[in-house]
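Quick log. Single chain, no ligands specified.
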Amino acid sequence: MKIVVLAGGLSTERNVALVTGTGVCRALREKGHQAILVDMFLGLENYTGALADVFDAPDGLCSDVRVESVEPDLEAVRRSRRDQSPSMLGKDVLTVCTMADVVFLALHGSCGEDGRIQATFDLLGVPYTGAGYLSSGMAMDKAITKRFLDAEQIRSAPWRDVIYTEADIPQLVQELEVPCAVKIVNGGSSIGVELPDTKEQLEQALHNMLSYGNHVIVEKKICGRELTVGVLGDRYLPAVEIIPKNAYFDYEAKYQSEFVTEVCPAPITDEQWHEMGAMALKLHRALGLSVYSRTDFLLDAEGKAWCLEVNTLPGMTPTSLFPQEAKAAGISYGDLCELLVLESIKARGAERK
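-> predicted structure:
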């Protein structure tokens, strides 16, 4: 098949998406597909061949990329593009996607997980991997996800939905309890998350969050072991435990292997695994997700699992959490990438009936 692996974009998770896309593209090419890596924001502005021949490009247009310890400078990325229009889609992106049999969405964050690119492809009749536009958009919004968790009676931390300005901060500091977790509603990769323990830290966190937007959720802080459980089709996969060497599983720990240890299958009881798996599957179905997702949990000192959030396009490098879970279930990385393509084509076909 001709497959565009769409990565990059212009979210704070841009570099993560490029690493995911490179891994997926090379795996699909090893499976015999004509896969190419396309940066959603920069497009094909550096490709000099004929567009009709792009699927024959050497190494699928892949390059060596890695995630640095700090989030990318998006303004620098904006300035680097020759086309300085406000479009989020780079040169020839839509054209080459319509030439493909399917688009593998290797995007993370607001560029790819919020439903906008999925809706665009639906209008164009282009098949793509993962969940549809509506369920993607709902899952990306932490406030909406929390409402689904409450409605489905899935255990999660008590929370408050907060839209605010700088002038509201003094009153919020008085009203909100600490310790807590403050999270921007559409963030990812632990960007836009702070965990204040004191009122002074809470005040600073609320100031800091305004650089990402004015809408946050504030949750009671739950302490415990960090675990995640993937859903593939109609089943849940073995759990992974994430043991950060920093205080928390932050952006640096997520993508720099020396700062984290990951254990799969997680050293938990079968009862704990099945409880988290059932919660992950229930949330996946409630939101109307399709093909795959990954749900994050905290396991407290009493052995209770608390649901944090769901990821509709989880990281897909060969060493990412979801591929680790699939490997523990007997599915190789290359087979997983191809399976996601095939099952997504079926899902898009079912949606059109």
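The domain at 159-220 is CATH 3.30.1490.20 (Dna Ligase; domain 1).
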